[in-house]
Amino acid sequence: MNPTLLRNKPLLLAAGVLLAGAAGYAWLRYGETGPGPGFVGSNGRIEATDIDVATKYPGRVAEILAAEGDFVTAGQVLARMQIDVLQAQSTEARAGQRQAQNAAGAAEAQVALRQAEALAAEAQVQLRRAELDAARRRFARSESLAHEGAASQQELDDDRARVHGAEAALAAATAQTAAARAAVDAAKAQLIGARSSIEAAAATVARIDADISDASLRAPRDGRVQFRVAQPGEVLGGGGRVLNLVDLSDVYMTFFLPEATAGKVALGSEVRIVLDAAPQYVIPAKVSFVASTAQFTPKSVETASERQKLMFRVRAQIAPELLREHLAQVKTGVPGMAWIRLDATRPWPDTLAVRLPAPAAGR
Q1: Strands (E), 75-232
Q2: How far is CA 18 from the centre of its chain?
Q3: Is the pTM of this model over 0.70?
């Protein structure tokens, strides 16, 4: 025998034992039978909903208040954009709002003035009507006296002229009243326009205030900062990303099952997840999604047979209340194994009994 092989025989034996142990562990972990009949498993990775915190409008990043790995709460300010231009626009808009309010006040005064003029014109109409009535009565008396020879023709002509003058004065007063009423309507129209200007100015102020509020980028929900995309001082376009968050209340494992098995999986089926990084823990979950169409086997999925070309995507959701208890320990991208109980009458084996780490004292 080769002397070199003899010298290395102990090392070769040790390596063989390790390989055999690894193979046995892999078979127990990923074999077709797994915990036994009524159960099925597949490998997958822990995933979570990620959210981009982005600027609504183009601008320069003024400051970023959260670091990678920080836990944040919904509504918390994470970054601010420069708002010098918006503040100038706000000052201009508020000045325009005050100007519109002053214009509306002046329009209201004009309406009151025109209404007073209309009342005065109506009073003149009443006066002219009274004068016309008196002139007609006097003319009637003069006409009767003239027939009896008690009044001269001159007096009759004078009284007739007075009647015509009173009629003309009444017509003029009536025209003035109509003009005064038209002036009132015009003043009211100006007042409506002025009030509309106030509303438009207020809307402009509200829009700019909203833009200023949007310049403070807030967390849309509780989560953890995964990474920074931009840095203070950078100029971003509309929709430019600043931070990326992971929503740790929406964590799940995605894995794939062959078509012959996926049809047996019902929504709400119990799942046990064992992570490669922490095999001592068993995490409970439930099936929340089963794809309605199959797809070709992803390269990352280990299949027992090359004949299994089509797989169905399945998602196992971890309960949000459980995630909140272990928020600081939740990690995404961790590979592991998911076991599904197809037969609800079969108990979970002791190896897949729920075992969780102690809740973290704080975030």
Answers
A1: 77-81, 216-218, 223-228
A2: 56
A3: no
